[in-house]
Amino acid sequence: MKVLLVKTSSLGDVFHTLPAVQDAFRQVPDIEFHWVVEEGFSEVPEWHPAVTRVIPVAWRRWRKSLKDPAVRAEMKAFYRSIREEKYDLVLDAQGLIKSAVFTRLARGTKAGLDRASLREPLAALAYKRRIRVPKGQHAILRTRQLFARALNYRLPEQLAYGIDKSRWERPDIEGEYWVFLHGTTWVTKLWPETYWRSLAELGVAQGKKVVLLWGNDEERERAERIVDGIDGAQVLPRMPLNEVSAWLAYAEGVVGVDSGLSHLAAAMETGMIAIFGSTDATLTGVLGPHCEIIKSELECAPCRSKQCLLNEPGDIQPPCYREITPQRVKDQLLIQISEA
User: Fold this and answer.
1) pLDDT truncated to tens, each residue of the chain (340 aa)?
2) Where in the chain is the domain with CATH 3.40.50.2000?
3) What ranges in 152-289 are assigned the alpha helix state H?
4) Topology (CATH level 3) of domain 2-151
5) What is the largest CA-CA distance in the chain?
6) Is this structure's pTM higher than 0.85?
7) Fold of 170-339
């Protein structure tokens, strides 16, 4: 059976889809997927053995210059690619109007969520088969339910991403190491620097190496402040996603905040802690078989605000992270590592 899967973005959403692909891979004999995904994330689907072809789309880039002849040529090439084969099923796992348009372009029976299950109900007009999946559940579970109902199998109890970590070589570092994913988009998602420093010291005292990743100058500068003067802690050079994946695949433990890379770490099924303060982990939080989410218990959390609304004085900011201490994070991380 050949299925065209439409799930274009974001990075976290792409990772959220892998458990559903793994379910189908286990439950449906001889299934294979072709996957339509944004060009910036096109290497991720290739990590799963059931995905035999990736069809990159560049809508994020194209929409900025639709009149450009080069862009129009790329769009025509994408149209030819998506219509090259006739599929047994074309499954829109994104559920947006833009993904519904891509779904309509393809050849084969179209399926997706029904109007009541969609954030953009008009997308349902693109599907011949409309599937009810209740809202209010984590995105991973909803996607797994969509696949199970679209492909007619019983949903497995076990959550797995199906990534073969042996595709990467172990990074050139001696001994066991922990990875800190300190970078994210909102100031209110940032765990305090002083806590990161204390956690690095605790990790080194535990006999582990500690490495920090970064994606921009601000994150690099923060990482350098965190490791400053701590023997056994280091800032890695900036690297592409594939190299980042190798470091996460072979880490003994990972600590991260609400970010795309934390979803990647969870997909590696490594022992990890994800720290949430201002954002809600209920529907789209980091989820993995060996991942523990530590959430703020402050009354105003999750505020879902890019700026702290409490304006409370104190050395630890934002205040929602005060009770999520380095010692607490280390203790919980050791539990996850022991169970991984």
Assistant:
1) 999 999 999 988 999 999 999 999 999 999 999 999 999 999 999 999 999 999 999 999 999 999 999 999 999 999 999 999 999 999 999 999 999 999 999 999 999 999 999 999 999 999 999 999 999 999 999 999 999 999 999 999 999 999 999 999 999 999 999 999 999 999 999 999 999 999 999 999 999 999 999 999 999 999 999 999 999 999 999 999 999 999 999 999 999 999 999 999 999 999 999 999 999 999 989 999 999 999 999 989 999 999 988 878 888 889 999 999 999 999 999 999 999 8
2) 2-151, 170-339
3) 193-205, 217-227, 241-249, 260-267, 281-284
4) Rossmann fold (3.40.50)
5) 61
6) yes
7) Rossmann fold (3.40.50)
